[in-house]
Amino acid sequence: MEHPLKKKNIINVLESLIAESHQPDQKLKILFVAVEASPYASVGGFASVVAFLTKELKKRGHDVRIFMPKFGFLDEEKYKTKMVCEGLKVPTDDEDKEFLVCNVKTTTVGDVQTYFLENQEYYELRANVYSYSDDPTRWALLSRGCLEFIKTGDFVPNIIHCHDWHTGIVANYLKTVYKKDPILRDIASVFTIHNLAIQGIQDMNNFSEMDFDDGKSPVASLFDPTLNKQNFMKRGIIYSDVVNTVSKTDTLIEKNYDSNSTDKRVYNKLTLQKEFDLPQDENVMLLGFVGRLDWQKGVDLMIKTLDYVLSDFDVQFVQVGGGDAGLADMLRGLQEKHPGKVGIHTHLNFTLSRLLFAGCDAILYPSRFEPCGIVQLEAMRYGAIPVVRDVGGLSDTVVGFNSTSGEGTGFVFKNFSEFALLGQIVRAIEIFKNKPLWKKVQRNAMKQDFSWSYSAREYERLYERTLSIQKV
């Protein structure tokens, strides 16, 4: 007869598999509109964001393309561009010069198709990408040119994804000038802010109060000096269906830091110890677990092994996450047996989870099996070193640390046994005592770049929310 607890755990495992292998309900058509995209033009960091994110979204089955200016330095022979739209008339809203005539050319690199808006005066005859007095005109032309190109029917996206102030007015145009257009009116918009400090307002020192842009007036003519005083960033925020930032500061932790300032993590560690009513001591190794209390995750193995560790070593352990009631009882038993060393929170808590990542020295993840796993990726990004079993996605993403070569990002064991896990925890404790060596493994972990696959999944969720919002 099958044990009922085992059946319940199998159900939990299946639910986990479904959640972690989530795919969006539909394959989307997405058009990225940006001034820069590698390898064609790369001045700032967001050129790489555009390139890598579109590539990853393409891998996940979406029809994602890029729309950008065709700068004069673009080597057309190298990239084998071809004409897709000749003589595109882009409205200027100026009485004397009603249209600017452009072409649209295209090429494909790495399976991602890119469209280039071609205009001699505003793009091809310029030596640089930025720093011209008429930059607002150049980017307004790009924004409006993009929408006029979509109207030709060559590629009609579900979502237009704009980047930084340069293309902030795409959503402004969509929600005003083109709100009744039969092709454009149903397109949703996402606006990603890469640098909030640069908002597209020119010569602010000479502004008067009368020049303040409330974002509600029509976008000025491409040749009107008022265009230089309109805040493209603000308009992107106001009119886009969804706005996000690409490099978010984590306001849920005590102190922010990066791979070059890991010493600041101690503030988060002390805060975490205080949160769980543990003695505040930066020299005590703090182990943690974030996630579902589940048989699949090897939580039972972790608890049994920690009983030995807490008895013989000066370490602490904290946990966040709900799930199986039996495993929660085991954690409470561990806490009672080792007072002052164990803190538990057997319920889901997003805020506390982030503090664990930022404050724990190591995160335990001894799964029986693991299709992918996100916790170890988040832990490494925060400098919490993963102790994981050599299985599935954990094996793919965590490299065992070699104390001789200084290579590796965590501690890995093979056999699903208390002895194997104990060995790696003890090894982590000993290396933790060697501060230079510990900082080395922390830097290795924090510099790992799994962000594009992870970001692509996060953007899929963002796009789904965008479409649902846009339909309301």
Keyphrases for this structure?
472 residues; alpha/beta; Rossmann fold; 2 domains; 14 strands; 39% helix; 18% strand; disordered N terminus; EC 2.4.1.21; Starch_synth_cat_dom; alpha-1,4-glucan glucosyltransferase (ADP-glucose donor) activity
How would you describe the overall organization of this protein?
With 472 residues, this protein is an alpha/beta fold. It has two domains: 27-248, Rossmann fold (3-Layer(aba) Sandwich), CATH 3.40.50.2000; 262-450, Glycogen Phosphorylase B (Rossmann fold, 3-Layer(aba) Sandwich). The chain is built from 16 helices and 14 strands. The chain has helices spanning 4-20, 46-59, 76-79, 120-124, 135-151, 169-175, 232-239, 265-275, 299-312, 325-337, 350-359, 375-382, 392-397, 418-433, 435-446, 451-471, and strands at 29-33, 63-69, 82-91, 99-109, 112-118, 159-163, 188-193, 242-245, 285-290, 315-320, 342-345, 362-365, 385-389, 411-413. Strands 3-4-5-2-1-6-7-8 form an eight-stranded mixed sheet, sandwiched between helices. Strands 11-10-9-12-13-14 form a six-stranded parallel sheet, with helices on both faces. The protein is elongated, with a radius of gyration of 27 Å. Mean pLDDT is 87; it is low at 1-23.
